[in-house]
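Q&A log
Question type: sequence-to-structure
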Amino acid sequence: MKGQTVFQKGDPCDGMFLVVYGRIKLAISSSQGSEKVMEIVHPGQSFAEAVMFPGRPCPVMAQFLEDGFLLKVDAQAIYQAIERDPAFALTSGGPVDAPAWLGQGCGALFH
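Response status: OK
Response body:
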């Protein structure tokens, strides 16, 4: 739903997200309350994978700019895929190019 928050800055990052449709705003807020948009994520793009791997908290907040649909891939599913096939970690484009595991560990669909 438009305006729905996916995660807040500082939340634990335990997966990555793929935008199926809609747009997602990644932004930070200043202590004065102003907001700086860092990126707009469009359908077919993913986000949060950069902080998921080192296990850092989310450095930005993510929010729907319009009605949309996300696919969340759990970090544990990605780690298991890498454990089974280390070459998986070297695939160009990362997890989005590896449909064999997309059915494993997916969940938390938002719209």
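Response note: The beta strands are 5-7, 15-21, 24-29, 35-41, 46-47, 61-64, 69-74, 106-110.
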